[in-house]
């Protein structure tokens, strides 16, 4: 091999290449001849329009083979998929059928319950209607009984006012007082007085105070008047000061003086204060009254707030009577001075009523005498 671009090829190799070239040429010529024969035969046997139609499509063989393979695969998979879907659908269908049966059962249960409650409602409605009818009848009966009770109450008030007014007049006699106190119903009578006064005060102290000319007011005033007449008797004072019903009556009168509206209840207070004064004349009665806490402040307040002549006069009498006892006079005088200024008494000494002037002056002199002694 020389140093240029040429390559030295052996002679044997050249001969082989030449032989290959001749063989290739010969084979190509043979294929060309066969192809010409095929074209000649095809052109003689079939027209071009007979080979392919206008809507025919030429599909390669390998595409047909692939399509056939996919079709076989689809045929194999379809039963599996269909069977799986059918099983799943069947299971869902079974579940749906169970749910449907459950829903039907629940619906039947609800229907049964609705029928039950409907029956209950109908029974309740019937009961309510019956109750309404009964209530209406009872309301009519209550109204009738209320009217009857009101009539009986008015009658009893009228009868009580008349009877007690007569008894009040009769009780002015000493013999009558002894008969009342020693009678078998004396304790019941005193309890009746206390209960009636308490009920009257409870009914009207927070409401409009009734006219004192009504039968009910006259009844209460008459009871207080009878009590005053009983306390005016020595025998009666002793009974009121020692018996439990008598002391209950004293407590009731003290409460009424405290809670009764000033001015409006003056007619009743006059009699109650007179009763308390009469009881204070008795030694046991005075001791009971002097031992009641808050009585002196109450009387001092009442003397300033109540402007009725009779109430003020009886309050002053009661104060003088309670302070007359030497054993308790000092204590009560201190208590009175803490709650009643001398200026109030000095003002009362100029009152237009002579008895109030005299009583206020006596009380003022007792206070000054007490101050001098101290």
UniProtKB/TrEMBL annotation:
<keyword id="KW-0175">Coiled coil</keyword>
<dbReference type="GO" id="GO:0005829">
    <property type="term" value="C:cytosol"/>
</dbReference>
<protein>
    <submittedName>
        <fullName>Heat shock factor 2-binding protein</fullName>
    </submittedName>
</protein>
<feature type="coiled-coil region">
    <location>
        <begin position="86"/>
        <end position="120"/>
    </location>
</feature>
<dbReference type="InterPro" id="IPR039584">
    <property type="entry name" value="HSF2BP"/>
</dbReference>
<keyword id="KW-0346">Stress response</keyword>
<dbReference type="InterPro" id="IPR011989">
    <property type="entry name" value="ARM-like"/>
</dbReference>
<dbReference type="InterPro" id="IPR016024">
    <property type="entry name" value="ARM-type_fold"/>
</dbReference>
